[in-house]
Amino acid sequence: MATVLIVAPVFALIAAGYASVLFRFVSETAHKGISEFAFSIAIPALLFRTIVVSEFPDVSPWRMWGAYYGALAITWIAALALSACLRERREDREDGVVFAIGSVYGNIVMLGIPLVLSALGNEAAGPMSLILSVNTPLLWLCGILQMELVSRKRTGSVLSVIRPVLADLARNPLMLAIGFGVVWRFTGLGLNPVVDRTIELLAQAGSPAALIALGINLFRFEVKGEMLSVAAMSALKLLAMPAVAFVLAKLLGLPPVAAGVIVLFAAMPTGANAYIFAAQYQRLVNPVSGAVALGTLLAAVTLPVVVVIVAGVR
């Protein structure tokens, strides 16, 4: 019953967002404004406040990164190998990179943050921030560099590839909120009660707004294209990656909350950023779109199981 109380409201809000477009209460473009509010204002406020006021367990960032990105790397390699078997033309190695991105790039912001906080509480904010602080730039950087390598189209230096990623990182509201939160926490000044209550009100809107935006956004994703590729990406993302993350978290001796964050983040379905990457290179656009839609639907079944496992470990 406790698992239902954690997971059901999350997917109910996603369904509400989808239904609001289906029944034309809002337009398909409404997700842009709601997403901008969620990811530029509300969720940064949530991250900033939880980092400043919460008590965090002492956990090594290297062990956290080792468990999560170790699982990601193993899944990435498996995806490249599986993609080579599925492709009709083995020379289309660019497809393999996009296939790998679709198999590891989880929806850890829109879906992951609300679910992890619901399941593990505010003490998960510290471990969660460690993953969030490097996830997007690292995955984009690895994807771009490998795409440049396999296509052999690089015309500039490695720095010319890295610079735009770093520039985006410096402007990212989530990264700024984490950075300012860490700095303010170290000052020991705390938050003025009025300021704290204002930020808290914004923070409370973050998770619901993100989930509603995800539901609206899902309306444009369709389960179509190469169904075998869609199923393979979904299986790697929802089953293989969290299983490997669970094993690595155990081997590295992570404390229960940190291990829970790692496993839950690894279990998130394919996110919209994977679709953006596919669209940018015009490779496997339909299969990745299908993985986003199908993965989110299947996550309604797989995530309760993961939550039960995480709760059992705790």
Automatic annotation (TrEMBL):
Gene3D superfamilies: 1.20.1530.20. InterPro entries: Mem_transp_PIN-like, Na+/solute_symporter_sf. The chain crosses the membrane at residues 6-25, 37-54, 66-86, 98-120, 126-145, 174-195, 201-219, 231-251, 257-278, 290-313. It is a multi-pass membrane protein. It comes from the Bacteria. Keywords: Cell membrane, Membrane, Transmembrane, Transmembrane helix, Transport. Signal peptide: none annotated. It is found in: Cell membrane. It holds the Pfam family Mem_trans. Belongs to the auxin efflux carrier (TC 2.A.69) family. This is AEC family transporter. It comes from Bradyrhizobium barranii.
